[in-house]
Amino acid sequence: MKYQQLARDIIQHVGGKENVNSVVHCITRLRFKLKDESKANTEALNKMDGVVTVRKSGGQYQVVIGNHVADVYKAVVAEGGFEAKGEVDQDEEKGSLLNRFIDMISGIFTPILAVLVASGVLKGFNALFVAVGLLDEQGGTYQILNAIGDGLFYFLPVILGYTAMKKFGGTPFLGMVIAMALVYPDLEGIPGASEPLYTLFAGTMFESPVYIEFLGIPVILMTYSMSVIPIIIATFFAAKLETTFAKVVPNVLKMFLVPLLTMLIIIPLTFIIIGPIATWASQLLGAASVGIYDLSPIIAGIFIGGLWLVFVMFGLHWGLVPVALNNFATLGQDPILALIFAHSFALAGALMAVIIRTKNQKTKTLTPPAIVSAIFGVTEPGMYGVALPLKWPFIYTVISSAVGGAILGVFGTIGYNMAGLGVFQIPSFIHPEEGLNLSFVASIIAMIVAAVLAFVLTYFFGGIGKQEAEEESANEETSNNSETEVKSEEITSPLTGEMRKLEEIDDTAFASGALGKGIAIEPTDGKLVSPVSGTISALFPTKHAIGITSDNGAEILIHVGLDTVQLDGKYFETSLQQGERVEKGQELLTFDIEGIQKAGFQITTPVVVTNHDQYQLKIIEQSSVTSESTVIELTSK
């Protein structure tokens, strides 16, 4: 593998694979979550060939690589085995609890963002087709389209069983099997098909009918389809349990006995413990919402409207649906679900700001269809795919939803029939007798205010684009730190040999220009001299590469051979030290061309200006060069 040695060196200098909780990559950098950042050798990494610089931000240890980061990432994962072992656990204490939770959720949802957005858009349009009379809810076309759009959401726990189990370091298919048991149709259909055996906590808000038992223990059934948190909790503990069993079960039985024992313990515990907790939390939320509304519709609007997306995330929103259904059945109207009306438009507003501010192409691609879904009342794609990973858009959506809910509470907006969400909820606010009254107008005002407020907050205070800007300027960061005033410069060849175009050499990092612009030389003499007068700013321990800052401010990197870092200094000799001053034409190091080639390495030597952005750079093209040949002219901008 081309980047195998670089990957080994990076892993070693971040403290070894045992110090790595997880590693991902973005457009230019490897993003490590380390157990102990003090174990990382930042100085060595900064000097390493193939690493542009190191940054620490947001609880991440970021190793900037350049355009070929995806290839380096593959090598790092292969060398460290991080795909199987890089679990997120209690040792990962970097960042706030909120940041760690968001990182976990976004990591679980990232693999399914494309299909999540696609399903959300289809689901929204299908509802629109029904609303305008193009489709009949009883017709086959609607049913098929609904199955396509709603299928992922209904079986979302199964998909999350895979991604969450992988995130936590367990066997993904085991996570899927756990989720399949939770959404098993025969279990979900029991409450509607039979009488309860008995009722727990009768007469209280936690009254729970029991339809089945497991080994004599009552099981409180709930609906797990379309839920998120129960399967994440289940897979978290399943991954831990699977790891424990894998250590103690004999190898001859491990293949089937480890998953068997894990399933036999985790699935019943999920039904017995997670189910009741979620059920009772939903019931408590429903009772609390009614109590708050009776106390103050405005406070209820802030509470219910603002936190609706949070309720959805934890599956607690099911506690409000029975309250609303009961209100429709007994009163013919419901004020509770009316208070959540603004949330999807607040999310759409925040996402619109993201589109304008972001420089990340993937985010730009995912966000427009997520806006469409949000307007149609399907918020999962925008929430899990964009707002929550970026954190601040989600926070501002919650704040704006609360403001919208308060407006709805002030004017006493009420729903007169059970409707969909988003734009499909608007008709439910039309009064049966008064028509478009003040409370209906208030719903439109709340919708606009929530969307505009979320847009403004996200646009100006969401920090969108800052991270992407850092990515684009990653290669400029070390260059711009120089306090030396840049002036025009003539750079002579540090070697005698044949000159080549940099983009033609067999090294992606240099050929792409990620590490600077310049030339390459095929040396015919094993003596490297200084191309300028200045100071040695970097001298790699392996002696195969050297950085020089000229008296006029040019920063030059000379790398003798390709991948020669693997030689660990063999065939290279120098008596110079970092920080020493050198004069133009002074010998810097010597190297054994024949020995390097016999070891299987190319001697092609890139000579690049790393702070080229500060100059007008001109290559003096020629076939053969000596230490007296001017090869690059720099003119200050």
Topology:
Blueprint: H1 4-13, E1 20-25, E2 29-34, H2 42-47, E3 53-57, E4 60-64, H3 69-80, H4 82-85, H5 97-109, H6 113-131, H7 140-154, H8 156-167, H9 172-182, H10 185-188, H11 190-193, E5 198-200, E6 208-210, E7 212-214, E8 217-219, H12 229-248, H13 251-295, H14 297-314, H15 321-331, H16 343-357, H17 361-375, H18 380-390, H19 392-410, H20 438-461, H21 466-472, H22 477-480, E9 489-492, E10 497-501, H23 508-511, E11 517-523, E12 527-529, E13 534-539, E14 545-550, E15 555-559, E16 572-573, E17 581-582, E18 587-591, H24 593-598, E19 605-609, E20 615-619, E21 624-625, E22 630-636
Antiparallel strand pairs: 1-2, 2-4, 3-4, 5-6, 7-8, 9-22, 10-11, 10-21, 11-19, 12-18, 13-14, 13-17, 14-15, 15-19, 16-18, 20-22
Write up this protein.
- It is a single chain.
- This protein is α+β, with helices and mostly antiparallel strands.
- The protein folds into four domains: 3-80, 2-Layer Sandwich (Gyrase A, domain 2), CATH 3.30.1360.60; 118-285, no CATH class; 296-467, no CATH class; 489-636, Distorted Sandwich (Glucose Permease (Domain IIA)).
- It contains 24 helices and 22 strands.
- The protein has an eight-stranded antiparallel sheet with strand order 17-13-14-15-19-11-10-21, with no helix packed on it. It has a four-stranded antiparallel sheet with strand order 1-2-4-3. Strands 9-22-20 form a three-stranded antiparallel sheet, with no helix packed on it.
- Helix 5 packs across helix 18, helix 16 (343-357) packs across helix 18 and helix 16 packs parallel to helix 20.
- Keywords: Cell membrane, Kinase, Membrane, Phosphotransferase system, Sugar transport, Transferase, Transmembrane, Transmembrane helix, Transport.
- The chain crosses the membrane at residues 101-122, 142-161, 214-239, 251-278, 298-324, 336-356, 368-387, 394-416, 436-461.
- Residues 103-477 form the PTS EIIC type-1 domain.
